[in-house]
Amino acid sequence: MTNYSFKSMTEQANAIQKNLISPVKLLEEFFENISIEKNSNQIFTEIYFKEALDEAKKSEVRQLNNKRKSFFDGIVLNWKDLFDIKKKKCEGGTQLLSGRISEIDAEVYKNAKNCGLITIGKTHLTELAFSGLGVNPKTETPPNAVKQIVAPGGSSSGAAVATALNLSSAGIGSDTGGSVRIPAAWNNLVGFKPTHGKLSLHGVLKLCPNFDTVGPITKTVEDSFYLYKILKGENLEPIENDILKNKSFLIDTSFLTQNVCDEVNKSFQLSVKKIAKSGSKIKEINLDEVSKSTELAKKLFPYEAYKSWKKIIEAHPKKMHPPVLSRFRGGISISYDDYLKTWNELKFLRKSFLLKMDQYDAVISPTCPITPPSVQKLLENDDFFTKSNLLSLRNTRVANLLGLTSVTLPTEIDNCGLMLLSKPNDEINLLKAAHLIELYFRNN
Q1: pLDDT above 80: residue 251
Q2: Rounded Cα gap, residues 254 and 295, in angstroms
Q3: 219 and 190 in contact (C-beta within 8 Å)?
Q4: SS3 content of the chain, % helix, strand, coil (to 5)
Q5: Does the model's pTM come out above 0.90?
Q6: What is the distance, to the nearest Å, from the Cα of residue 317 to the centroid of all Cα atoms in its chain?
Q7: Spatial distance between the Cα atoms of 160 and 190, rounded to a whole number of angstroms
Q8: Rounded Cα–Cα distance for residues 292 and 256 (Å)
Q9: What distances in angstroms separate CA 199 from CA 9, 192, 195, 301, 331, one per listed residue?
């Protein structure tokens, strides 16, 4: 008998549509996986056994009466613990918010529920979502799904690990500088960051309001495409057909492909070779706006993050892991005038960058310049933690800084993602290109 918990979200939905499995049976498969996963408490902050089962039973009635709310009615999601779900805990991965209960439902959560998707529970993250490593000694650190002793990637650590270990159909995370794409890459998944403002942040704990985005973590690009539509409240239409040969890509030689570890370099070169073999146009170019924008990040992210959480942090600073606290406090010395000046510089770089990639579908690069480091070493050495954290975020935060949409795909080497970056508001074209690459990788 087929175990559908191991399938993609779209395959699961298709099986429900064809009555090959019921929503209750699918949920029970996930419950069974959770029961035998010895680290489930490190992955989930809370599992909604009763509520999820009640929703699955309602979904099954709709299935039997041919009244499904959508094609994905009965599909099971986990949510990073910074999305509000009314009357449920939402603690943001920090002891500072211990016991916080949500008073509303996040807008994206409501959109998912309106389509009949079921929430199995909330998942762990790094403190207030301000780290790309996924290591959180103050709450829990989910085990990397590929190799348990290394970092899971963050900040949406649990959302990725739960998806990779088949504990839910997909996960919903947030991405301010890479927090969806890093854990996706380090757990061999797809992670998608839409353009800032495309998905509602209402009912989501903010970190850097001008950079925060909501994004899905899934097993396939097709799943991310549909989840994006669901979270946005749009009609579900399939990805249009095209061929990879018609796509054109840029490779940045100035920053994104430089100083990467051997495994990541090997993964990227293999990926580029395959894409080139398809007949796609690939051009190498020096995109100096990339490195210049990352220099500006040193002022923009700390300023917004500290401004967002200053009062709560300074009331009980000892409740935070020192390297994370230090990163927040990096915003103390940055003045508002300096912040505005930096923003104006960034706006100029955004315009310049877009002119260079106007005729191309996406920039391709390694998702992270490093593979996940040892959790033990990160916890034993604060300097190593800080250095590794900045490296983990180095490539991904370029999309947030330059206002782009971005997606990461798994490659044939574990813990190494291939990242695509595209123009603002170009989500559908980006996902089409990523889908074509995914299919080509699978078949070649």
Answers
A1: yes
A2: 14
A3: yes
A4: 45, 15, 40
A5: yes
A6: 27
A7: 9
A8: 12
A9: 20, 12, 8, 20, 27
